[in-house]
Give the backbone structure.
Amino acid sequence: MNQEELDTDYDVIVLGTGITECILSGLLSVDGKKVLHIDKQDHYGGEAASVTLSQLYQKFKQNPISQEEREAKYGKDRDWNVDLIPKFLMANGELTNILIHTNVTNYVEFKQVSGSYVFKQGKIYKVPANEIEAISSPLMGIFEKRRMKKFLEWIGTYKEDELSTHLGLDLDKNTMDEVYYKFGLGNSTKEFIGHAMALWTNDDYLQQPARPSFERIVLYCQSVARYGKSPYLYPLYGLGELPQGFARLSAIYGGTYMLDTPIEEVAYTEGNEETGKFHSVKTKLGTFKAPLVIADPTYFPKKCKSTGQRVIRAICILNHPVPGTGNADSLQIIIPQSQVGRKNDIYVAIVSDAHNVCSKGHYLAIISTIIETDKPHIELEPAFKLLGPIEEKFMGIAELFEPKEDGSKDNVFLSRSYDASSHFESMTDDVKDIYFRVTGRPLVLEKKAEEETA
């Protein structure tokens, strides 16, 4: 792309091609904004890219094996699309709604994840996906199953404006622990609901108002009901397809993309990063102006702060399905913190050649959790034990960052780092939050989604 072909004035400049940034780029382009999207890397996805096996070795191994050795063992490099940050989509979640609303589903194909499993007393058990599975599940005894059934019936029939459906509970005043007590649910059932359905990463939620947990359980149940088997979807060819899909959307609506273009300088109206407003960025292709910029934390490290949490992720290559899962081609395993003496859950996401992310006969298991000790690699041992023999292992640690301010002062709107959770709900909350701060209005999806299904 020549300098002569490029305009220099835009409505919005977006830096970084993480999923958050690409969604916002697509949404703002659809809104009629003139968007310029720049990334210092030569591929889409930013911190959450999908990479080839050779890229994975370069990133994580100091002495990577030769291409010949690698291909003899694992097949062609082009057959591998390995997610650096593993997450599944909730079938009824906000990211799925955004994909439908924007028609990005035209560019990305999804496959359902076969099952969700939970670790209990040294074994993994399938999370029931329907009533028949629930009745036969060894996760609960017969009386506990009845209590659980009553709890789920209450969730399903609850109506905000009909007090008779509330059973005397106030979602904004009663804690989730009080809700469990009302239904007489035992500790292992509470753990199962809170961690395998509401998908909380720790037990802090128990003493908080019940509404967020209620909404998470509703989302889980609706997502399972949509396709059966599990609540999760996953894109063929890996999560890197998502930013590319939104990039195509942006381009259709006039957005301009420049990959492999480092930022040489950021200018402010007063010439000062501390007091001025965003003015322009200088690159090898020229200087580009806009009244505001959206970026990931790596572009403005001084404007970000650590959340105080670090995440460890381990990418494991297997040549066999995970034992005890009925040869499932994809699944999630949740290891609740109390089962392994921790404060935070451990998540394992497993995909395979069925998703075009690895060569035939191979599986990818990606483990993630929030670090709690000074020996983070040992913290993942409970997950490694569940996987059986591991052919190759890549491990990385990431510090989580968030913006110091909301962007209104300097017109620099920053996204948050991707957390340790197994799904995209917190990321889509970030998208909606930034969209609101940038445009001054909430992101509304319902109308188009209704037209789609009409």
Remarks:
- The two ends are 42 Å apart (CA to CA).
